[in-house]
Amino acid sequence: METRRLVLTLTGIGVxxxxxxxxxxxxxxxxxxxxEGGQTTSDSxxxxxxxxxxxxxxxxxxxxxxxxxxxxxxxxxxxxADSAVYIxxxxxxxxxxxxxxxxxxxxxxxxxxxxxxxxxxxxxxxxVVFHDGSRRVVADDFKFSMERALNPDTQSTVGEVYLDDIAxxxxxxxxxxxxxxxxxxxxxxxxxxxxxxxIVYFLDKLTYPTAYVVDRREVxxxxxxEGADWTxxxxxxxxxxxxxxxxxxxIELEPNTDFYLDPKPSLQQVTYLLAGGSAxxxxxxxxxxxxxxxxxxxxxxxxxxxxxxxxxQTGANMSTDYIGFNTQEPPFDDPRVxxxxxxxxxxxxVAETVLMDILLPAKGILPPGIAGYDETYEGVPYDPEAxxxxxxxxxGPELFDDVTLLTSGQGAAPSEALAAVTALWEEDLGVSxxxxxxxxxxxxxxxxQGNFKMFSLGWIADYPxxxxxxxxxxxxxxxxxxxxxxxxxxDALLERARAEKDEAERIRLxxxxxxxxxxxxxxxxxxxxxxSVLIKPYVKNYTNAPFVIPRLRYVSIER
Amino acid sequence: xxxxxxxxxxxxxxxxxxxxxxxVVTFALGRYAPSDYVEIQAGPSARPETIERxxxxxxxxxxxxxxxxTYISNFLRGDFGTSVRYRGVDVEDVIFPxxxxxxxxxxxxxxxxxxxxxxxxxxxxLRRGTxxxxxxxxxxxxxxxxxxxxxxxxxxxxFAVQLGWLPTGGWESREILGVEIGLxxxxxxxxVMALTLLGVAGLARYMRAQVLDVLxxxxxxxxxxxxxxxxxxxxxxxxxxxxLPIATLMGFELAALxxxxxxxxxxxxxxGIGLYAYESIGSRDYDSxxxxxxxxxVVFQLAMLVVDVAYVFIDPRIRLSAEASA
Lengths: 559, 326
What we know:
The complex is a heterodimer of chains A (559) and B (326). Chain A is built from 18 helices and 19 strands. By secondary structure, chain A is α+β, with helices and mostly antiparallel strands. In chain A, strands 11, 12, 13, 14, 15, 16 and 17 form a 7-stranded mixed β-sheet that branches. In chain A, strands 1-10-9-8 form a 4-stranded mixed β-sheet, with no helix packed on it. Chain A has a 4-stranded antiparallel β-sheet with strand order 4-5-7-6, covered by helices on one side. In chain A, helix 16 packs antiparallel against helix 17. The longest helix of chain A has 29 residues. By secondary structure, chain B is mainly α. In chain B, helix 8 runs antiparallel to helix 10 and helix 12 crosses helix 13. The longest helix of chain B is centred in the last third of the chain and has 39 residues. The radius of gyration of chain B is 24 Å and the shape is globular. Chains A and B meet through helix 1, helix 2, helix 5 and helix 15 of A and helix 2, helix 3, helix 5, helix 6 and helix 7 of B.
């Protein structure tokens, strides 16, 4: 009796499984199966127009995007790209980047620089008004906004990072001075900023939201961590106004018809969806107009027979993924050991086979698009035999018994690319290095405190200058130099480059420094970033920029 | 009914004690976890001295008991603190709209689960001994053992990617009579479907066992012996009695659904309280985590209380004993 029940129950489970799996395969068959099938269905659905779920009706001239849910819309506080994307459209600053990534005057109409490169005089436009139309922007608004970002009471983590080249900042932060002496209001139309050293990338740094202007009547004494209600309805000066921000759900922008630069925004509305499932499916269902393409879909999109192929674009995004070593502790304090790892890393192979070429293999540190990037530079070539010989000379594979490769992540398997890299090391060097995943907060702390042997991380440009990579990440005194790499020769080159006015010579200095660094191998550069996106044909002039720039005012919808 | 009132009162008195324990444990776990929100949000480019300064100013370096007292006294005055995930926005402004989203689809799931699960379970019990019985149990076991983590991607793939009938995720609200309702849009179908499948399978299995139990009772035999028709026997005697333990289940079910929403909302990108809890923990959003846990604990306590009280009304025997003591 019991056996009979058991058999019957198992049969029941079996039948149910068959029904479910059968149903799935019938569904698959009915849609033609595979990737092409997915395409045909969504096409036919779009034609039918009945079954496809639609969002609330589109407005004429509306651009729909998938957006990151921003942490803050306060320009003084934003330190992440997800937030900056919205801030650069809603607010504006003295200078900004155009689509060719040149620094252009923005609220400033023109800029004079003194012969010694220390004093910048900004002549402001007279027709820049806040979104509510109540008042024009004057020089004192900039002084207020910059001092607000720097004021310790504001608790900004980025104020000093982007504005500390200005004279008098240190005295202001420590409380020794009431104001930043380097920012002087000459009159309503003229602002004079004096910097500590004649650095040539100062204007690049001013394009960052930290230096943007805010309405002092609105921000009051709001800090980066308290009283942010004003950011839900900000009175900015940028090309777009914030129409609605439903936390976690959507952000709607509307054009600022009084914008002072040409071209003025032509879109009637921009809607960012902050929540949702697969962006690619939403794109195929016409719910969004632009989407990124991941490694799992890229093969299908690259197929010339695929209808989406015509909408596919790629562009460099000025970032470098790398493996960093702790250069102050054994075993990686020995340059031979680091170099052996660099020689045993076949990035070309990993990029082609694991990443389907969605990233570019990195030979040097500077990514394409940054001045100083040299296509012909070979870096440390892949050479497994020499790598093995060098490692044996330095002490052999026994050195790495408790070395792990630290990476940030949780739950799921670590990146396949990293797994491939460590597999190559095992094959070529005979060292087995486990990948250790840490939750992001713990990872950051361990990196900051030098509590690691090797780690994997990426760096994306804040502004397109080699200084943003080499000086920030690898000068021995930079707080961002996690590997604690220190080479006096490199430091000297980087310091000379900071103030070098001859552009060609400046780039040459950076290239020389880059080569010294790559030979010393505190980093094994792995890949340079690349954005792979799909853009609907009716979306015109959407720039696939390598970092955050104001770009929506150029875009138009032409159906 | 005096007995009932004093019972409710005694239960309510326990709530603050439980909340106190929950708040201390959550607070301590949060503060003793490595790293903090200033460090995480500052990211790798900020200076260590800036981070340390902000930490000091925000009181994160104070002794933990002082921090706790500050937090709780604010909380008791109705100030839930400020969010870090949405920097500087008041926690209550973030949490309540999200709680509403999570509640909407969970209530729908709960109703559907009971409306479908009870008849199906009863039906399966009445077919005991036929070939349909093991088949239905097999189906229940299968669906009850597929976790949301597996069923959601499958349903997404089938209904959104292959068939294109439903959106892959997200949430769309429309304002109806001044209330933001999202339950009526296509986005709500996938989460409701995934949770209902799981819930119905579990409930039907449980209901079937209860009904079988009741069918063996003397009063059912008596009813049959009296020559009553099968239909009134089932509806009046069997189902009613089998439902009693199910009422308890309902409270647990609601609590489980809300905690289960963490996974579901993360998979489907639904901006509810579950996704927010997940994000808050990742960004060490202390005030948000505390508020979510404390609100969750209150909801759970109240649900349990309602169930216990409801029991008195459903089960005449319990009411009798309550009146007897009065």
